[in-house]
Amino acid sequence: MASLARLIPRGSIPSIKPSQFSRPLTTCIRASRQPSLRPNTSHFNTPLKQSSKRSYHSDLHPPLPPHSYTNSQTAILEAALSHVPTHGFTNTSLTLGARDAGFLDVSVQLFPRGEFDLILFWLASRRGLLRAKVESDVDFFKGDVDVNGKIKALILERLRMNESVREQWQDALAQMSLLGNIPLSLAELHALSNDILSLAGDASVDGSWYTRRAAVGAIYASAEVVMTRDPSVDMSETASFVERRFEDRDILAKKVEVIGQCFSFWGNTIVGVGRSYGLKI
Amino acid sequence: MASMSTRSAWRTLHYSAKRRAFQPPTPYRCFSCTRASQDQKHDERMTHFGFTNVPESEKESRVGAVFSSVASSYDTMNDLMSLGIHRLWKDHFVRSLNPGSPLSARINNPTQKGWNILDIAGGTGDIAFRMLDHATNIHHDVETRVTISDINADMLAEGRKRSLSTPYYGTSRLDFVEANAESMPHIPSESVDLYTVVFGIRNFTDKQAALNEAFRVLKPGGVFACMEFSKVDNPVFDAVYKRWNFAAIPLIGQLVAGDRDSYQYLVESIERFPSQEEFRGMIQKAGFMIPGKGYENLTGGIAAIHKGIKPVPKA
Fold first, then answer.
1. What residues of chain B lie within 8 A of the CB of A73, using their CB?
2. What residues of chain A lie within 8 A of the CB of B193, using their CB?
């Protein structure tokens, strides 16, 4: 109960000045809060003013960095990414990257997960780039005004970022599907769908919060698999695949709605019939 | 009568450790002066030798005596005590370090001269031969070389004897040095790629000094890697493990190596070694960067692999 009581005042945080909190409390809240929970529907129309405009928690909570690698690790990983198109997501790329960054061959010990760290860094840094791109480019969503159109545009943009490593991506997917790597891969997929939805301005706060993230994650992950086998140069087949999945999703949503209507009709009818026979319901 | 003698023999086996810890008071005491003023070693800093405290100057010779006495039966004893698991740990340790430059990274790069590895407290060569094997067989790298450094001449002699049966005997890839790891003036600063110490740092008198010295000899970007007994995290498993340590190991030592005290010291020194988190803090204090969590537990924390990387100064 005590923990529940401590959770409740969270909603009132913005109205309280940070100075009124003792230091440990603010840091604890900052650490526990996910950026995605912020309703940031409004900042889309004025992306440039975003930092000053985001009234809700904006001063207390700068957006979290996309990954938690240290400076030295980032330097090596950045350098290693330039070797990925030739050597793939392998330890060789990491070793060459370490050399480029002025480290030794042995310094790849900085990465306990080896090549999987390289894959995770690729995913996290591209996710950060996607956010940066949307936030810096005012007319990123030219014609798309509705949330679904924005989501589609973001998924396609993220897929286009994989263009340079298309040949290597199958290996990366294989690495990500190893048993020990699955939890981190799924966490990264969730972070991406989270980012996409919050960038698209989705403000759902009910059960659809989960279903939407699951849907975007599923569409993106399946599109990645299609992308690795896409023979077209400009990834047009992948784009049309995404298009079809969105249509599927709409059809599915319609079906669910119709089934729900059907059930509610039958429920009402049964209650009505019962009442007409004098049941006290 | 027979049962009496068995019991007394059992008692000798079982309680000699405790009896050893008992130190008789000084036989002569001058009653006209205080005991403290009589104590010659009062000012000297103390350190632990197993569960007993000894002056820092004495620890080195005492540890030396322990390892001189166990050198010849070292491998048999390790196999018996760890049920052979120590070989798996050592293999895993070397494989995770992946010593040697891969062929793909050596092509078009004539400056690449293999790794310079310093194996501290590696007298019997367990780790050194594994690393050389890995570099040669996995990476086809015949440049990587290992310097085995140990404070104990008997352990080094054991390693030399073993190196006779390896292809590295008499080549420039293998070198034996008798030195104290807390101060190695014969090794220039920033000359080593990989510094390993496996089941050794526990016995050092001043662990922090050894870590600082490791930091000095490593090149920027070089790696400090250490495998050492550590703390078991599961309480149930810990109880079983402690039982094994304090009851079985000294007994095995007495029966196989004929030396109970050395193995009593071994289990006591395992008990006194800092936990994973404390030791990670010591590595950080020496100036190393810690990758990820900083340590990897083996077999539920009986042993742990610690790693630290020397940072590269910003250009």
1. 291
2. 104-106
